[in-house]
Write a structure and sequence with these properties.
four-stranded antiparallel sheet; single chain; Arc Repressor Mutant, subunit A; 4 helices
Length: 133
């Protein structure tokens, strides 16, 4: 029996170092694809700050305190790091969660199902990565 080739072209992807979203190869990046780290000028200027690293560490610490299947929200991490000014850290917490998905430390879930963090909308629930996911 012969194998059929996948008719879809294989598109090379990377994960943005700042926002954690998946980015696909673009013709304009063809000469520098190996050096591309950020998906946009906004992410390139934002980079990853010590606060972003604190959010990542807080997400992992909060999850370590819970049973394996339990979740936290991005606002839990934002509150833990930002105190009264936590609302300003909500989007940075979402970016931190996406970066943790990229390194296979956590999963983003909606209604109990793992979702692609690049396309997740609404409140994000985060859980520790399980062996089967």
């Amino acid at each position: 029996m012969s194998r059929q080739r996948d008719p879809r072209p294989q598109v090379e992807t990377k994960v943005c170092a700042s926002c954690g979203r998946e980015m696909q190869w673009r013709a304009s990046w063809s000469a520098v694809w190996d050096e591309v780290k950020y998906c946009s000028a906004a992410c390139r200027s934002r980079k990853v700050t010590p606060t972003d690293r604190a959010l990542e560490a807080t997400i992992l610490a909060l999850l370590a305190q819970r049973p394996a299947k339990e979740t936290i929200s991005t606002s839990d991490a934002a509150r833990a790091v930002g105190g009264d000014g936590w609302r300003a850290l909500e989007e940075p917490a979402r970016r931190a969660a996406r970066r943790l998905v990229a390194v296979r430390a956590v999963d983003i879930v909606h209604d109990g199902r793992v979702v692609d963090p690049s396309w997740a909308k609404g409140p994000m629930r985060i859980r520790r990565r399980t062996a089967g996911s």
